[in-house]
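Key result, reporting period 2: structure in, sequence out.
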């Protein structure tokens, strides 16, 4: 049994991870800590576990094996590193950190203390992604030339008695979040496209503050990949009814995914569009993969490179938007200590 502490209910997915932990037969939630005492006490009461106001008391507790972290993103480096030094396994909401340098420091602490780290990148476990990867690997699209991925919702659209939309107000706090739509919801198009297209070469981004928040509520990122693929990544908090879209285009065909609708056209399959009869079976969710890595040392399918490349694209996009120019990844990496 893995005894887990929940560290903060700041992120909107905190309840989801608590439910996933409760459903996993190998996990038991033992305690809640939150930087917001009132919120934490209410959550602990709801879950029927103690609340601890001092983080170090949680981390020093030998009974606690692991932590699930949903703190503000600006606290990730401090808390994840501290948890690693106290030999706690770590599951955290994306992104790992704001910069590549901070992410590398986190990874170093994790490796030095021999603990397991997982960042929640759930769409890498979904059947449609696995199918897209399979189609690419089998060469049905020929040489991949373009990829477009869009994920957006209406979380910032105002409505009666909710001037910031249905997202919590702190999701627009630049200090805590480090950004807006791109760093949060846009993470999914970023890590999916990174996996499908490979390492990035350069980034050009526009992060727009349409409704005047401190952070972006609408964003488009153009990624040039080393493979020659051009990626268009779109996200936002201002779109009602916007479907999830993943489009892959190559010299021999095209794959169009829109929510549950999937169509493939390939010269190798003749004329017309093809609808798959069956998709690959979905993989275990990130939290469950983390649990089985702790228990059985089973290698997860979500990897350190996924965590790091997500940070790199976000950092480059932020810099590109601020400078109004194209940012080369190689230069960003070589100067990371100065960024």
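The corresponding designed sequence is given below.
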């Amino acid at each position: 049994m893995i005894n887990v502490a929940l560290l903060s209910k700041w992120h909107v997915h905190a309840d989801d991870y608590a439910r996933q932990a409760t459903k996993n037969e190998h996990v038991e939630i033992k305690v809640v800590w939150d930087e917001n005492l009132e919120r934490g006490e209410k959550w602990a009461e709801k879950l029927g576990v103690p609340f601890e106001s001092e983080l170090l008391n949680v981390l020093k507790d030998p009974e606690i094996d692991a932590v699930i972290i949903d703190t503000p993103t600006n606290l990730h480096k401090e808390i994840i590193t501290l948890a690693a030094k106290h030999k706690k396994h770590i599951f955290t909401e994306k992104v790992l950190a704001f910069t590549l340098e901070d992410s590398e420091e986190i990874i170093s602490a994790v490796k030095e203390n021999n603990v397991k780290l997982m960042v929640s990148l759930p769409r890498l476990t979904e059947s449609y992604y696995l199918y897209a990867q399979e189609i690419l690997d089998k060469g049905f699209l020929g040489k991949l030339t373009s990829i477009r991925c869009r994920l957006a919702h209406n979380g910032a659209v105002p409505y009666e008695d909710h001037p910031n939309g249905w997202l919590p107000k702190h999701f627009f706090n630049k200090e805590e979040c480090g950004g807006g739509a791109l760093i949060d919801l846009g993470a999914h198009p970023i890590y999916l496209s990174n996996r499908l297209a490979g390492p990035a070469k350069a980034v050009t981004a526009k992060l727009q503050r349409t409704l005047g928040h401190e952070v972006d509520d609408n964003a488009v990122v153009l990624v040039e990949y080393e493979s020659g693929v051009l990626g268009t990544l779109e996200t936002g908090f201002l779109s009602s009814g916007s479907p999830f879209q993943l489009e892959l285009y190559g010299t021999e065909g095209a794959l169009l995914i829109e929510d549950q609708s999937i169509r493939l056209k390939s010269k190798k399959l003749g004329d017309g569009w093809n609808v798959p009869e069956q998709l690959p079976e979905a993989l275990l969710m990130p939290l469950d993969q983390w649990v089985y890595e702790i228990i059985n040392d089973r290698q997860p399918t979500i990897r350190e490179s996924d965590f790091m490349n997500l940070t790199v694209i976000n950092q480059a996009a932020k810099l590109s938007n601020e400078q109004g120019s194209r940012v080369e990844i190689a230069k960003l990496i070589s100067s990371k200590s100065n960024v």
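The first strand starts at residue 2 and ends at 7. The two ends are 42 Å apart (CA to CA). This case is discussed further under Risks and Mitigation.
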